[in-house]
Design goal:
The termini are far apart. With about 130 residues, the chain is of the alpha+beta class. The chain has a single domain, classed as Immunoglobulin-like (Sandwich), CATH 2.60.40.1150.
């Protein structure tokens, strides 16, 4: 009888360990970067268990003219991130985050196209994976 109890406890322990290991969050990080005449851009992506994705876009203005409003659109195979934001006057940056769950995951080997419009000007940057 004792052997049966120990056997059942052992089986329950093994099943519990497999259940816990399957539910541990596995995070994959990727970075993309690019630069144009007036802008530097980075996108940092974190993927959790290949089920959800967080993206953080940082745009930094390196030009010399005065600007306030910036329109951007970042596109890759998994979708797009776009908006119109005010440029932070002190840091000359825009930082924007997005989250999705159940969406198509970004491939770390692809490039991301980024279109930026400001003061009736427009630039396009290709963001490449950063190792």
């Amino acid at each position: 009888m004792k052997r049966l109890v120990w056997l059942l406890l052992g089986i329950a322990l093994v099943i519990g360990i497999f259940f816990i290991m399957d539910n541990i969050v596995k995070v994959n990080y990727m970075s993309f970067a690019g630069k144009s005449k007036n802008w530097e851009a980075t996108i940092i992506i974190s993927q959790q268990n290949q089920k959800s994705e967080n993206k953080k876009l940082t745009l930094k203005y390196i030009g010399s003219e005065s600007i306030s409003e910036v329109e951007y659109q970042a596109s890759d195979l998994s979708g797009q991130m776009s908006g119109t934001e005010e440029l932070d006057k002190k840091t000359k940056q825009i930082i924007k985050e997005s989250r999705c769950s159940g969406c198509m995951m970004t491939d770390g080997n692809q490039t991301i196209g980024l279109k930026i419009k400001w003061n009736e000007k427009e630039e396009f940057i290709i963001l490449h994976p950063v190792s």
